[in-house]
Amino acid sequence: MQISPHRRTIRRDQVLSKTGLSRTNLYLLERKGEFPQHFLLTPRCAVWFEDEIDNWLEARREALVKAAPWPNVLLRKVARGRPARQSAAPFVHAQITTKTLKK
User: Fold this and answer.
1) Are 15 and 53 in contact (CB under 8 A)?
2) Nearest to 15 by CA among 53, 72, 69, 52
3) Are the CB atoms for 73 and 92 separated by under 8 Å?
4) Domain carrying residue 87
5) CB-based contacts of 36: which residues, under 8 Å, 6+ apart?
6) 21 Cα distance to chain centroid
7) C-alpha to C-alpha distances, 7 to 2, 4, 69, 103, nearest whole angstrom
8) Whole-number CA gyration radius for the chain
9) How far apart are CA 14 and CA 17, in angstroms?
10) Do 85 and 42 have their domain in common?
11) What is the DSSP string of 79-102?
12) What pLDDT, on the 0 to 100 scale, is given for residue 98?
């Protein structure tokens, strides 16, 4: 693989500020093959090619990303041993009671 002398490399902090991702999500996406791979300049210096990051951002912008579902507040409150008010979770689709979770 030939590397063009004009390709700019950026370090992790620059990648994180450019993409808005957290470190955890950055490495999870990279491991799944959904983000450009980093390479090591030295044993402690990981870098990415800036043009690959820019291309990923453009592709991500054009791609349809499904929104995350609303959290089920009733599950969280019941798991902590507190009774959940029905009006506290307007976006919950399933009704879960404490009896259901104790079984």
Assistant:
1) yes
2) 53
3) yes
4) 73-102
5) 30, 48, 49, 52, 53, 55, 56
6) 6
7) 11, 6, 39, 59
8) 21
9) 5
10) no
11) HTTPPPPGGG-TT--S---HHHHH
12) 47
- Judged against a pLDDT cut of 70, whether residue 11 lies above it is answered with yes
Instruction: Give the residue from 25, 1, 23, 28 showing the smallest Cα distance to 12.
Output: 23
Q: Is 11 left (phi over 0), alpha (psi -120 to 50) or beta?
A: beta
Across the chain, how many H-helices and E-strands are there? 5, 3
Residue 3 lies in a domain: no
Contact status, residue 51 vs residue 8, Cβ threshold 8 Å: yes
DSSP label at residue 17 = H
Give the model confidence (pLDDT) of 30-64 as tens digits: 999 999 999 999 999 999 999 999 999 999 999 88
How many separate domains does the chain show? 2
Q: Are residues 40 and 77 in the same domain?
A: no
Residues 45 and 19 in one domain: yes
